[in-house]
Structures are given as C-alpha cells and as structure tokens.
Amino acid sequence: MRTVAWNYDTHKLQMIDQRLLPGTFEVAVFDDYRAVAQAITDMVVRGAPAIGATAAFGMALAAQQSKARDVSALLRDLKIASDVLKQARPTAVNLAWAIDRISERTIDLDSGVDAVKETLLAEAQRIADEDVEINQRMARHGAELIEDGDTIIHHCNTGALATVDWGTALGVIRMAHEQGKKIHVLVDETRPRLQGSRLTAWELTQYGIPFDIISDNAAGYFLSSGAVQKCFVGSDRTAANGDVANKIGTYMLALAAHDNGIPFYPVVPTSTVDLTLKTGAEIPIEERNPSEVLSLTFQGLAAHPEGASARNPAFDVTPARLVTGIVTENGIAYPPFETSLAKMVKG
Ligand code: MRU
Is 31:61 a contact under the CB 8 Å cutoff? Predict the structure, then answer.
C-alpha cells in the first residue's frame, strides 16, 4: 500500500499512521483538510515527499469540502486551505512546492466549480504518481554508487514511508539490493522520534536487506573503524549552493564521514531543491515540542530529573563542503553545486 493515497470510492484520503509503527499497522482516514494539516504536524505522515503529496490531496479535500457556487469563491476557500496546510511543518519545501504547483496549474477562472475540483484532484494524483516514478529514477542513478559488499550508514527514514512509495536514500539502497548487490546497512536510530529504528528497520526487514541498528552517537566509531564505505541520507530542503537540511544529526554524521574520507551522498528529488535560497542559512528549521526529547525512559523511569528542560530542533544543515555528491532524478550533481544543481533542476 502507498503511504498516502486517495480512495476514489469513498472520496477520502488514506495514510499509514507512522506514529504506531512498527508495532501496529493502521490506516488513518481523512475527509477534512484541517485534520490533514494536523496529521502532518503530528507526524502521522512524515518525510518531505510524502508531506508534499499529502498537502496536494489536502487541497483536493478542501475543494471537495467547499460550498462555493462560483470559481472566485472556491479560490477564496482554497487560499485559506493552502495557508493552513503550508503552516503544518516549515522545513520540508515539498509542502509549499506541491501546494503552489497545484494552485498554479489548476486554476482556470473560465471553467466551472466542478471542473476546478476535478482538475485539482487529478493534479494531486499526478504529483503522487510522479513521486514514485522520480524515486525509482533517482534510485537507479544512486545505485551506481554502491558496490557489492558495501556497508552503508543511513540516517532517519527515507524509504517508502517517507515518500508516496519506494523512497529516496533508502530507495537507492533498495535498488542496489534488487540489483543483486550484497549490502549491509547501519541504521542510525535517529533520536528523538526514532524514525531509524522504528521505520527504516521495519522497511529493511520487509525488503530482506541485512542491517544493524546503531545509536546515533556510534556512527563516528563505525566510520573511523573502516567498517563503512558510504553514507546515504535524504533532505527536506537543499539550497542553491548544495547546503542540505535534513533530520537532526545529519550534520554530525557528515562531519565524521568527511573526517574519515567516507563519501556522503544526500538523495534529493528536484522538488526538494529550493533555488530561491542561496545558502542553507536561509532554511527555516522547525523546533518541535521538548516533550519528544524528554519522553525517553530508562528501566521504566523518566531518563531526566523532574523539571528538566530540553531543546528539540528537528533538522540541521550540512554545509555543501561536506557533501560528495547529490543524487537527483536527473543524475548526480557534483561540486560546484551552484551550477550542477541548477542544471539538474532544469532537467
Ligand atoms: O521529521 P521527518 O521524519 O519528517 O524527517 C524526515 C527526514 O528528515 C528525511 O530524511 C527527509 O524528509 C527526506 S526523506 C524522503
């Protein structure tokens, strides 16, 4: 099943509830765009491309919910919905990218309300279908970097669950495995929400790819021990100069990889490249509720003194100088990224 999908029988949006995995596989159903926005914030659905497709379907729901009798009134309702959805999570640019694309391509003032609603849903479906096709193209490019026998460190979850299907960085690993390459994955557990140990390990089990979960702070040890050949990660937003925003902890991983001469590859669909931002310093970084950090228990008891405070940035920025190459659906960009990335985005 796809991570996010429109049900054409019920006219509702379905998503795998990622908060419950790996213990429980449950599909959440939505018929209200505001609930969709809340589900993005609460991380029922997460991962930049999955969030983008979800927001696009959220706009289709908003159109379906609208009681507008003419296109201008419908557009007013859609503007409110797009503002609500865009605020759900700030770092992943795919969210705004999908909403802007759907708004630009579907609004024809001369067509009727029903026609606009239909075009909107068709465009959301196109965004979802393209995501799968783009991920598989990206995976074929990226798999060329993987050799038989490689051990790879992977951070967060970038698999089928982080996209509509197939995945970005984990999609590259999956493609190499399907090509018959023998690989081993060291899965960063990814504090504080454990997307690595909960979601990536769950996916790898299903694909039959051998792995070990490691605590995030063990990555440097493995990189310096000669046990690792490559690192593959995803991105939530990549700036024009090749600075890569991704799940918190990615920067530390890139530093340790660089110090040990291990290639570091973000896998980034061009929808995640934001050419309007010169450098990663301009990327908004989401800071989530400290309770996510403070929820850790040790032997059944809180792992911090009562009243302790915490900080919880959800992403960090890896500077382009630590990046070996950026895998996109149009090929692999190498430094200097200012020119190579722009070329990839043009296609
Ligand atoms: O907070 P999350 O789980 O949405 O963060 C996800 C990531 O950081 C992924 O690496 C990124 O979205 C790219 S994966 C397709």
Answer: yes
- The pairing of strands 27-30 and 244-247 is unpaired
Sign of CA dihedral 280, 281, 285, 287: positive
Residues facing residue 313 across a β-bridge: 287
The rounded Å distance from CA 98 to ligand 1 centre is 16
Convert the pLDDT of each residue in 253-303 to its tens digit.
Answer: 999 999 999 999 999 999 999 999 999 999 999 999 999 999 999 999 999
Known catalytic membership, residue 236: yes
Burial of 199 (0-12, 13-18, 19+ CB in 10 A): buried
In the structure, what pLDDT confidence band is assigned to residue 177 with cuts at 50, 70 and 90?
A: very high
Structure tokens at 110: 């001369």
CA–CA dist 86, 113 (Å, integer): 23
Listed in order, strand segments (DSSP E) in 112-177 are 151-154
Give the domains, in start order, of the chain with CATH numbers: 4-135 (1.20.120.420), 137-346 (3.40.50.10470)
- Mutating to test ligand 1, I would choose from 246, 251, 270, 287 the residue with most ligand atoms within 8 A of its C-beta, which is 246
Are the CB atoms for 306 and 247 separated by under 8 Å? no
Question: Using alpha carbons only, what angle is made at residue 100 by residues 96 and 102, rounded to the nearest 5 degrees?
Answer: 120
Which helix (DSSP H) or strand (DSSP E) does residue 317 occupy? strand 315-318
pLDDT tens digits for range 239-267: 999 999 999 999 999 999 999 999 999 99
* 82 Cβ closer than 6 Å to some ligand 1 atom: no
Decide if 100 contacts 78 (C-beta within 8 A): no
Residues in the chain, total: 347
By the 8 A CB rule, do 29 and 16 touch?
no
Tell me the pTM. Answer: 0.97
